Amino acid sequence: MRLKQTISAASMALILSFSFAPVSWAAFPSEVNGKELPSLAPMLKNVIQGVVNIATEGKKEASQLNHPFFDDPMFKHFFNMPEQKQRQQPSQSLGSGVIVDAKKGYVITNNHVIAKADKITVTLRSGKHFTAKVIGADEESDIAVIQIPAENLSAVPMTDSDKLKVGDYVVAIGNPFGLGQTVTSGIVSALGRSGLGIESYEDFIQTDASINPGNSGGALVNLHGELVGINTAILSRSGANIGIGFAIPINMVHKIMGQLIEHGEIRRGRLGVYIQDLTPDLARAFDIKNHQGAVVSRVAPDSSAEKAGIKEGDIIVSLDGKPIKNASNLRNTVGLLAIGKKIELGVLREGKQRKINAVIGEPQMEKQNAKALHQRLEGAVLGELEENHPLFGKVDGVVVVEVPQGTPAWTAGLRKNDIITSANRKQVKNLEGLKKAIGDKNKRILLNIRRGNGALFLLLQ
């Protein structure tokens, strides 16, 4: 394809200024007619010292027979197949991280970068290598804190990501495709992206700064060299960048980081409301002008919300003075608050504004990632029998809400909609009862499962 040979007046002026400038053409000029050309190099000079490359080594289980039927316990029973032991095969991953505390050696990265790693190696810009230890990780937000020896480290300063605006210039720094430290630039394309199904807690910064595999856990900085986000994911069919990347806002990261450093885990509180977005149709139905907020569709019994006086049909429009845009925004905000924290909610009730004081309560185990109960249950999500379940009031137990094919829980024999009625021959009525019945998560467990109109035992060891 031939290029159009047209030159604008502005381009011609720039060319002429280069022609008459006393510069050497051996390299691109740093200034023209005494005026310095814009460059990100001065800003990046210090920032890139605080962005690290992360390499992990671990092991993952691989089935000896590559067909889902071979992992089904019913299939094995009918065809008298022996149990197949899981083989361990080496796994490696590459990613990025950001030094946020030079004195203590704390590095922020994504949980998926270091998950299941037996060894984590951090490489600085200078080429120095350190073996890192995990301080804490949160799968739901995909944030992890690791630590390396504090030897002349350089941290990237954090700023208020709430001040970001669509159109602001940003720079992504990381280790794409394992090439080594790479810098790309772009703008903030959108803010508050959620509902993507990437993580449980989503409030992403969207950017067209090129983010690729290996950039995960790297830095998104503004033109002042301040950390505004942690690069996390891309939207792509090919696996390479198409101009839509996502970063976790640093304000959200900072709150999670504090809990991970203090407790090693996230202790999320609960308000006790079932909520949905305030759509234009709902706003008209409620006869209000607001188009932002979270509508309370149900209040959980004996919850903090019920004790505070929140009612069905209330529209929560602010929390501690900060506007609530939608249901996801409220969920993210509450999920990052400490248990016992007193909050003030701005609520619209029957078109009138009112303030309601509430206290963030202890989380109730309505659903749980089963990995926390037993390592062989990894991949399954468990839940309580709810009122709309056809067996509610007829059977006591815990429901398998989901279990992706190929996960350890699937391999162990669990299937979606199974009901766990007993564990280790102890009757199970709820998640708390299952947890007590299992006991030591490293020992084998015997589960009694109700599946459809039948039942079976599963031995996990």
Quick rundown:
Helices cover 16% and strands 35% of the residues. It is an alpha+beta fold and 461 residues long. 36% of the residues are buried.
Proportion of residues in β-strands: 35-45%
Contiguous uncertain segments of 5+ residues:
1-26, 63-81
Mean pLDDT: 80
Distance between the termini: 63 Å
Number of helices: 10
CATH fold description of the largest domain: Thrombin, subunit H
Topology:
Layout: H1 9-20, E1 31-32, E2 35-36, H2 41-47, E3 51-62, H3 73-78, E4 87-101, E5 106-109, H4 111-114, E6 117-123, E7 129-138, E8 143-147, E9 169-174, E10 182-193, E11 204-207, E12 219-222, E13 227-234, E14 245-249, H5 250-263, E15 273-277, H6 280-285, E16 294-299, H7 304-308, E17 315-319, E18 322-323, H8 327-335, E19 342-349, E20 352-359, E21 367-369, E22 381-384, E23 398-402, H9 408-412, E24 419-423, E25 426-427, H10 431-438, E26 445-451, E27 454-460
Give the tags.
461 residues, alpha+beta, Thrombin, subunit H, Pdz3 Domain, 3 domains, 7-stranded antiparallel β-sheet, 6-stranded antiparallel beta barrel, 10 helices, 16% helix, globular, disordered N terminus
